[in-house]
Amino acid sequence: MKLTARLLKSVKSALSPTGTQHWIEQRLSGLLSIAFGIWFLFVAPGFSGYSHEDLLLWIGKPQHAVPLVIGVLTITWHSWLGVQVVIEDYVHDKQMRHLSLRISWLSHEILGIFIVVMILSTAFGVVW
């Protein structure tokens, strides 16, 4: 019985991260977002003379598509962590908090997946 209780406790702790883990994830995603932002600031000024086709070709290169995907995933993750903290701090009704967290998670997942699919489809030459 003690082994089962330990397993359940470890599964529960894995599904609901501690405050320290959440804090570390926020800082890590923030640092990665800053790194992505700095990279983007260096490449974005060159976009002024690009046509739509030129931008699609630019995104299609692996050295640009990979950082874009990593950046989108990182920023989406960081945004979700921040919204989660706001909901947990300011939504006091337990059911509304649970619903708000689920809606926030789902909307961030859908947005992140949609943007990644668009970047990868452009990189692989799929035209919508």
Query: H/E order of the elements?
Result: HHHHH
User: What proportion of the residues is helical, as a percent range?
Assistant: over 70%
Structural class: mainly alpha
CA-CA gap between termini? 56 Å
The biggest beta sheet is recorded as:
none
Please name the CATH architecture: Up-down Bundle
Word description of this protein:
Helix content is 84%, strand content 0%. It has 128 residues and is mainly alpha-helical. 5% of the residues are buried. The protein has one domain: Fumarate reductase/succinate dehydrogenase, transmembrane subunit (3 helical TM bundles of succinate and fumarate reductases). The model has no long low-confidence stretch (mean pLDDT 88). The chain has helices at residues 2-15, 19-43, 52-60, 62-90, 94-123.
Can you give me a brief rundown of this structure?
84% of the residues lie in helices and 0% in strands. The protein is an all-alpha fold. The chain has one domain: Up-down Bundle (3 helical TM bundles of succinate and fumarate reductases).
